[in-house]
Amino acid sequence: MLEVQNITVQFGANKVLNDISMTFEQGEMIGLVAPNGTGKSTFMNVLMNYVKPTKGKVVFKDGLSYSNKSNEVKIHQFVSMMPDQSDLYNHLSGREHLKMFATMWQSDLKLIDETIEALNMGHYVNKKTGTYSLGMRQRLCFAMQIVTNTEIMMMDEVMNGLDPNNVEIISKILVKKKAEGKIIIIASHLLDNLEKYADRIFLFNKGKLVNTNQVIEGFSQAHIKTIRVKNMEDHTKQQLHELFPNLELQTLTNGMSLIHLPSSEASLLSSFTSFLVERNVVDFAFGKVTLNDLYSMYYHEDRNGDSQLKKNNHINYEE
Ligand SMILES: Nc1ncnc2c1ncn2[C@@H]1O[C@H](COP(=O)(O)OP(=O)(O)OP(=O)(O)O)[C@@H](O)[C@H]1O
């Protein structure tokens, strides 16, 4: 169990985290999603005590908190943060890094070979890390955290620089760790992947963490019907609105239009499909709102390229 109690972090006038309270349970994978510079790393740094909160505290099992150095030592025996590529020693091999981490956390040394095999690192793990590619270094950093075998694992952009096969391999390992009862907290911009594997996903909004289910009621449930149409012309949207005034239409920054179809309007489906096809709009699909859609709905870029929170971003599916 991990409980965040009223955490506020302020850097000068910048309130990055604003009175956040939440609990994470064993066997949960938590996704943190937000544009750059919104507080994901700060949040994890507070959980590690690398950043001291302006207010609030983090409570771990047995009521342990970072109230003194000796508690911090105890907590860091079961909480770890994935190392950064810049933490690697170029003159040491991958295996030496893994031995170092497994020894520091006094975990089972058998985990080293198991992890090397699971991540297909056998052909390079005995070479010095100075010779590794970006993806090889990233896999090693992930492997280093896995061999710590800690109960709580935090990862900032774990999938950075990995090809799709390695993203899947790492995801499967995370699922296994989750099944072992670990709490896994991941900050990531790989939204499809997060959506597939995370149990709960939070978006950062003005220093708060907002559950995706609060943004769209029932987001994580598959029954919501949405029609996703690519590049619909404005005049088609206008006609659509006139013919089907009860359908809610949203256009996202990525050019995708989402048409939300409440169950009460399900009978409209075939006439609506004909409407699109008659206008030569054939690039559409039925499905649910994806995390990518939700991200585009929730944040938009301002003129300086900074992501801002959108106004009126709450969709209510209540029928
Ligand atoms: N030590 C610090 N002193 C002052 N401001 C800081 C400090 N650390 C972070 N910040 C500010 O806090 C905000 C959040 O930064 P943080 O690194 O947590 O963002 P992030 O969401 O992890 O971003 P990214 O996706 O780019 O990694 C930024 O505005 C950043 O400038």
From TrEMBL:
Residue runs in coiled coils: none
Stored Pfam families: ABC_tran
GO molecular function: ATP binding
Location of the ABC transporter domain: 2-231
Matching InterPro entries: AAA+_ATPase (IPR003593), ABC_transporter-like_ATP-bd (IPR003439), ABC_transporter-like_CS (IPR017871), P-loop_NTPase (IPR027417)
Keywords assigned: ATP-binding, Nucleotide-binding, Transport
UniProt similarity note: Belongs to the ABC transporter superfamily.
Name of the featured protein: ABC transporter ATP-binding protein
Natural source organism: Lysinibacillus xylanilyticus
